[in-house]
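Reminder to self: keep the SMILES exactly as supplied, no canonicalising. Ligand is nicotinamide-adenine-dinucleotide.
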Amino acid sequence: MGKIKVGVIGVGNCFAGLYQGIEYYKQHNAEVTGIMHREIGGYRVQDIEFVSAFDVGENKVGKTLDEAAMAEPNMVKWINLPKSETIVHPSPVMDGISKYTEEMIKPKRIELSPELEKEIMDEIKRTGTEILINYLPVGSQKATEYWANIALKTGCAFVNNMPVFIASNPEWEKKFREKGIPVIGDDIKGMIGATIVHRVLAKLTADRGSSVANTYQLNVGGNTDFKNMLERERLESKKISKTESVQSQFNERLDDKNIHIGPSDFVPFLENTKIAFMNIEGRMWADIPYKMEVKLTVDDKANSGGIVADAIRLAKVALERGERGAVIPACAYLMKHPPEQMADAVAKQELERFIKEEA
Ligand SMILES: NC(=O)c1ccc[n+]([C@@H]2O[C@H](COP(=O)([O-])OP(=O)(O)OC[C@H]3O[C@@H](n4cnc5c(N)ncnc54)[C@H](O)[C@@H]3O)[C@@H](O)[C@H]2O)c1
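Structure tokens returned for the bound complex:
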């Protein structure tokens, strides 16, 4: 099999985790713990290559990708990376930076211009980039739409890892379908993340015949993602994405006032450790109450890397098969806000069927 040529938008912590994870598997070929699919369409995670990259950070733009992935404020330092030939190119800042992260990222304020766009498109063509993966900060509505348009113009498949709605927005999805390009999104559902655990518990309460009175999920962490989310105005789509993901698993929708899910605070010393507190209160046999509390402690970036490694390989398979628009089973299993919500067990079955399908 050939390699998968990927371009990255936002060389942040999540990307550093994906990149270093792939390097880990190159160095530990026999140990495959932590990978959902050894192969998808014949591709292994080691077949993913990052051939183009775009960012705004003063200490990332102009650097080789290995240097940029290790540059502050990134915190993932799991493994040494070999020298990369990919140079990080500038991206327009637009709404990518919040007032809380400006000081950490120190963006190069390169304005949107036809020259910049030409430079970006030339780089994508020169490098043979076939899939663009979007890791922009929460709240980057305009910048994400800008990059979705670049995917449409260059014919790249688009994997949208964050909560601006592209695959799950019918207008955007139609644009990808009409251009004959696959799109997978929106907003990664971590491997053992708060969303998947909360969804499974929500489904359990429904399947076991109990009723749920209320539920909440509070998340804290200490990386740039959490600092960015201190700006509450940037959170609208993140809150919808996280809340609907859990809401969709109950037999009956909870009243809005009885469900609260979202990022809650920035605790600097936690760095990439994310702690999620989940609570469900309900009633069972003979209307007797029950209550469950779960605390989940995870490395936020290890949580997303494996999911994106699958999404990239599924996007490649979709490209090879001439799939158009949202790749529904991939979106449903891997993302929090897909075009179509399914129970995770059903989404997994659909995904396995998609993987086995003939071209
Ligand atoms: N488990 C997870 O970590 C997880 C799960 C679901 C979704 N996400 C989402 O993935 C996204 C990335 O998370 P992260 O932790 O890597 O964030 P991060 O803040 O570490 O990285 C964001 C990167 O984007 C760059 N950037 C900002 N504006 C830009 C622009 N206009 N153009 C190009 N680059 C720009 C920043 O310089 C930074 O390098 C976030 O939206 C996050 O919510 C993460």
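Points to follow up:
The radius of gyration is 20 Å.
The pocket of nicotinamide-adenine-dinucleotide is lined by residues 9-15, 54-57, 91-94, 96-97, 105, 135-138, 143, 161-162, 187-188, 190, 193, 223-225, 228, 300-301, 303-304 (CB under 6 Å).
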